[in-house]
Structure formats: C-alpha cells, structure tokens
Design a protein that fits this description.
This protein is mainly α and about 80 residues long. Helix content is about 85%, strand content about 0%.
C-alpha cells in the first residue's frame, strides 16, 4: 500500500523549476500591470487637471471681457444722459 503513494518529500517542499518560473512571470506581470495602472492614472489625471485649469482661465477671460463691455456701455449711457440734460 505504501508503494501506491509515490511522492518524494523534496517535491512537496520544493516545487519544480518550471512552476517557479511560471509564478515569477505571473507575479511580474501582475506588478507590472499595477504600476502601469498607477502611472496611466496619474498621466490622465494630470491631463484632466491641465484642461480644467485652461478652461477656468478662459472662463475668467470671458468674464473680464463681458465686464469691460458692460462698463463701457454704462459709461456711454452716462455720457449720453449727462450731455442731454
């Protein structure tokens, strides 16, 4: 009966070299994917932040132009009202 179980103790504690290479490749791929994901997320976030900043600057410029136009119209209407009276 002991002859049916043919497993040596060394194979239980030390896996075959092909198995080790597979595990190394698998975990290397996993860690590479994680680090690439972190890098890619950072680059996307940086691009989004720059786009958001450019949009905010453009919005402020538009508000300044609108304010200048409103001030000009107010000054012109004050001149027209003051000159006629």
């Amino acid at each position: 009966m002991s002859s049916t179980l043919n497993v040596s103790r060394s194979s239980v504690f030390f896996p075959k070299p092909k198995h080790i290479l597979f595990q190394v490749a698998r975990y290397t791929a996993l860690l590479s994917g994680v680090f690439y994901g972190i890098y890619h997320r950072r680059s996307l976030q940086k691009a989004h932040d720059l786009d958001k900043e450019h949009h905010a600057i453009h919005q402020r410029e538009q508000l300044i132009v609108q304010a200048k136009d409103a001030w000009r119209q107010k000054q012109e209407s004050a001149k027209n009202d003051g000159g006629e009276s």
